[in-house]
Amino acid sequence: MSFFKNLFSKEKKEQLDQGLEKTKESVFSKLGRAVAGKSKVDEEVLDKLEEVLITSDVGVSTTLKIIERIEARVAKDKYLGTNELNSILKEEIAGLLAEREGDEREAFSLPVDKKPYVIMVVGVNGVGKTTTIGKLAHQFKENGKSVVLGAADTFRAAAVDQLTVWSERVNVPIVKQAMGSDPASVAYDTLQSAIAQEADVVLIDTAGRLHNKVNLMNELGKVKRVMQKLIPDAPHDVMLVLDASTGQNAIEQAKAFTKATEVTSLALTKLDGTAKGGVVIGVSDEFNIPVRYIGVGEGIHDLQPFNRVAFVESLFG
């Protein structure tokens, strides 16, 4: 698969700026208070900066890495003015994301040798998982790809109904069974249908129950095994959807899901409604899993491919 830095249109950049506005305002107001009356980055400023980053939901371990990097710069340059702190933060966070985000791919590109390309979508109920699937389906379709949806969250009638509404809205086929059916059976039928239709991409919704990690692990494992009877290397991507507005709770969910199954990409939703956008930095760093998409609004096009350069520019620009 070829990977490229995503080129953002002016419209996409404006969406991103608006989506991160609450986080940006929060970070800058906290930064302003941290450096008030100070001209030089010293130990006291660094202590306050650590507090700013942690309270912006960047996370403790990621915050400590950023502080260590800035401490190294202070030691090397001897004098750093607080007026430089914003650009320094921008550089160090961009550098950290660059180390973690190793494979920014061209938006909605798919490998030519994997057809259909199977994406299994996981995440707890309420994070915007089904909405994310619907928006992905729409954008893949807009990019000339044929899509099939699989309603394998058979434990909630609302989940199947919601996905059906999305399938009708974006005009893509859906495979579903009665509520309470075996999720693996739905996944198998979905792949069978996608192969028969020569579809480009399959999006499989899964149950979001986290009360028992063993059950979750067994269920997701069974779904994978059954799909592999038809496509030996399916799923090609296990995408974990997290709600950015839950802050540190999103990081806890990521810990639980990465223990339960192999997660290969992340999507963070609801960034526009929260000041907790710093969680994107923490999640990306802590789990070393690429953030593939971010949700910056309610609209069907407001799920954007994540671009670390554009993200940091919007946050600290």
Describe the overall structure:
It contains twelve helices and eight strands. The chain has helices spanning 10-19, 21-35, 43-55, 60-77, 85-100, 129-142, 157-170, 183-197, 213-228, 248-260, 279-287, 308-316, and strands at 117-122, 147-151, 174-175, 201-205, 237-243, 265-269, 291-295, 303-305. Helix 5 (85-100) packs antiparallel against helix 12 and helix 6 (129-142) packs parallel to helix 7. The model is unreliable at 1-7 (pLDDT under 50).
Put the structure in a nutshell.
The chain has 317 residues and is an alpha/beta fold.
Structural class: alpha/beta
Topology as a string of helices (H) and strands (E): HHHHHEHEHEHEHEHEHEEH
Backbone shape: elongated
Helix count?
Answer: 12
How many runs of DSSP E, i.e. beta strands? 8
Task: Name the assembly state.
Answer: single chain
Strand content: 5-15%
Note the gap between the termini: 32 Å
Descriptive tags:
disordered N terminus, 51% helix, 317 residues, 12% strand, alpha/beta, 8 strands, elongated, 8-stranded mixed sheet
